[in-house]
Automatic annotation (TrEMBL):
This is Protein kinase domain-containing protein. The keyword Transferase applies. Residues 35-130 form the Protein kinase domain. It comes from the Eukaryota. One of its GO terms (molecular function) is protein serine/threonine kinase activity. ATP binds at K66. Keywords: ATP-binding, Kinase, Nucleotide-binding, Serine/threonine-protein kinase, Transferase.
C-alpha cells in the first residue's frame, strides 16, 4: 500500500490555511502516553481510538485520537477525505477535527473528545447484548 505524506491541498496554489493543524508524531505519542492501552476508548474501521491531551498552542485540549492500523479496511484515501471534509465543515452537530498527523506510514486523526459518544457506544453495545 502506498501512503501520501503531505496534505493534497498543500500542493495547490489555491490552498488557504485551515484551523485544522498538523501534529508531529512525537506530539501524538506524548498525548497518548505512547499509545497506552489504558487510554483506548473505542475501535472503528480506522483502528483504535485513544483519549489524550493534546497541546495546541497555549492550550491543552481533551482529544479523541484515531490511529490508522496496518490492515485497516480504511486507508490513505479515507484519511485525507476525512481531513478535507471536516476542515471545511464546522457545525454543532459534527465532531470537530482538531488536526492530524501524517508521518511515513503513521496516519492519525485528532478530534475533540465527545463524552456522549462513549456513552452512546455503551448504550448501543448493551442493546446488542439484549
Ligand atoms: N470524538 C470522539 N469522542 C469520544 N469518543 C470517540 C470519538 N471518536 C470516536 N470515539 C469512540 O471510538 C469508537 C470508534 O469510533 P470510530 O469513529 O473510529 O468508529 P465508527 O464510528 O465505527 O466509524 P468507522 O468504522 O466508520 O471508522 C466510537 O464508538 C467511540 O466510542
Amino acid at each position: 500500500m502506498s501512503f501520501r505524506t503531505s496534505h493534497p491541498a498543500e500542493s495547490s496554489s489555491s490552498y488557504s490555511p485551515q484551523p485544522c493543524r498538523q501534529f508531529t508524531f512525537s506530539e501524538i505519542q506524548l498525548a497518548t502516553q505512547n499509545f497506552d492501552e489504558s487510554l483506548v476508548i473505542g475501535r472503528g474501521g480506522f483502528g483504535k481510538v485513544y483519549r489524550g491531551t493534546i497541546t495546541y498552542g497555549e492550550t491543552d485540549l481533551d482529544a479523541a485520537i484515531k490511529r490508522l492500523e496496518s490492515g485497516s479496511t480504511q486507508g490513505a484515501v479515507e484519511f485525507w477525505a476525512e481531513i478535507e471534509m471536516l476542515s471545511n465543515l464546522r457545525h454543532c452537530h459534527l465532531v470537530s477535527l482538531i488536526g492530524y498527523c501524517s508521518d511515513g506510514q503513521e496516519m492519525v486523526l485528532v478530534y475533540e473528545h465527545m463524552p456522549n459518544m462513549e456513552l452512546l457506544q455503551i448504550v448501543c453495545t448493551s442493546v446488542e447484548l439484549l
